[in-house]
Write a structure and sequence with these properties.
Elements lengths: L2 H6 L1 E4 L13 E3 L20 E4 L16 E6 L2 H13 L13 E3 L6 E6 L1 H10 L4 E5 H7 L6 E5 L7 E8 L10 H5 L10 E5 L2 H10 L5 E5 L15 E6 L3 H5 L2 E12 L1 E6 H6 L3 H18 L2 E9 L3 H9 L11 E9 L2 E14 L3 H10 L2 E8 L9 H10 L2
Parallel strand pairs: 4-6, 4-7, 10-11, 10-12
Antiparallel strand pairs: 1-11, 2-3, 3-8, 5-6, 7-14, 8-14, 9-12, 9-13, 15-17, 15-18, 16-17
Length: about 400
């Protein structure tokens, strides 16, 4: 092993207590159930408004009294950074960075907000220290680096980008050839106190917690950053716990995921400091605006507006036919209005215009059903925002904060 690589790699054994005692864990506290339209993260992730906590944190640093602006941390590099800026722009919240080498920027539409570009793990740490009030990071990062704080609140758990999973992977052949589940792997006789299972990961807290909870008794956890797939082929580790998107990199390096091996599923989230929400002026109001814009845009991105002309004796007659079809009932129901034309020199109504919002995935089915009840001249329009009377996630956040 080269000196440089050795300097970046260290190992720590996972202590397994002899007497039963609960391991430290991420305690997910789901907020009250939201409406049926609320979005939720995949299994093992947060609920609509969730606090991330484990053991009692050390005394939190006091909020800086001389700071009056609200600070949000955004990823500084990579695809996550690009997708974050793109999402904010789609919500009419373009980030203005005067110098690409600066770490600070602003959002003109929110004048009392500062943008700070940071590494994702530093965003989580600075939320805990009070140096940031809000942040956009992956749920995996929140879970790994926020495990010692009760001050982190997941405001929006599904920003619809950065989807991945933290997963256990092993070589396809050798001693793992017939291993297809975590249960099988934990029972393997190859691992002993003298020869523990070597697992390399950049997620020391989540990796150790997962292995302990799944009954692994003889494990040595190795910490490393980047190219973890190379460790098993080089003989430096037996397995890895790493982020997986498509799984292509694993397959190309002769590694496989196994049943029950998903540690956590993740995507981008909006996170806030509980203390800032309670104590810093303006943070709650800015959070509300961000949440409203994000929720309205993300909801609209999955829906389409469909307009069709339909013959009928009355608006009620048309509405009755439309409401008999489940895929074109709309958010609350269709909007029906008369289409005026001139017939034999007189203004008359022969058609009614029907407007309805339908899910993108049901578009073709909706078109077929509209045709079956006399719809014609169908127009399809993309939506930018769908604002509810109040987003369920905001109500959940207020409940989580006790407000």
């Amino acid at each position: 092993m080269s000196a440089m690589l050795a300097a970046r790699l260290h190992s720590t054994a996972i202590p397994l207590p002899q007497s039963p005692s609960p391991p430290s864990s991420i305690r997910l506290r789901p907020a009250p159930a939201a409406g049926s339209r609320s979005r939720s993260l995949a299994p093992r992730a947060a609920a609509s408004a969730t606090a991330v906590a484990t053991k009692p944190a050390a005394a939190a640093a006091p909020l800086s009294a001389d700071r009056t602006v609200v600070r949000i941390g955004l990823p500084s590099k990579g695809r996550m950074a690009e997708q974050t800026l793109s999402l904010l722009k789609s919500c009419q919240l373009s980030v203005r960075q005067l110098n690409p080498r600066q770490y600070t920027a602003d959002i003109p539409l929110i004048p009392n907000m500062e943008v700070w570009f940071q590494r994702p793990k530093d965003i989580v740490r600075k939320l805990q220290s009070g140096d940031l009030d809000l942040g956009i990071v992956g749920f995996d990062t929140v879970s790994e680096y926020g495990q010692v704080s009760d001050d982190l609140v997941v405001v929006h758990d599904a920003l619809d980008f950065g989807q991945c999973r933290l997963s256990l992977a092993v070589p396809k052949g050798g001693v793992f050839e017939n291993i297809h589940s975590v249960e099988d792997m934990a029972k393997m006789p190859e691992w002993t106190e003298e020869k523990p299972l070597r697992v390399v990961t950049g997620f020391g807290y989540l990796g150790a917690k997962f292995l302990k909870e799944n009954g692994f008794k003889h494990v040595r956890l190795l910490s490393a950053d980047g190219a973890l797939e190379s460790f098993p082929p080089m003989g430096m580790a037996d397995a890895i716990v790493d982020l997986v998107s498509s799984g292509t990199t694993l397959r190309e390096n002769n590694l496989k995921e196994i049943e029950g091996g998903v540690v956590l599923e993740s995507q981008a989230t909006l996170v806030a400091s509980r203390r800032s929400l309670h104590k810093r002026k303006g943070v709650l109001e800015v959070t509300h605006e961000l949440l409203e814009r994000l929720e309205a845009h993300l909801r609209a991105s999955t829906e389409l507006m469909v307009t069709a002309n339909m013959r009928g004796n009355s608006a009620e007659d048309v509405a009755e036919r439309v409401l008999s079809l489940t895929s074109i009932c709309g958010l609350q129901g269709p909007t029906i209005s008369p289409v005026y034309c001139r017939h034999d020199g007189k203004v008359a109504v022969e058609y009614y215009a029907m407007n309805v919002v339908v899910p993108q995935k049901l578009l073709y089915k909706a078109i077929q059903q509209l045709r079956s009840i006399g719809g014609s001249g169908v127009l399809v329009t993309k939506l930018t925002y769908i604002f509810d009377e109040e987003t369920p996630r905001w109500r959940n956040l207020l409940t989580e904060l006790g407000l």
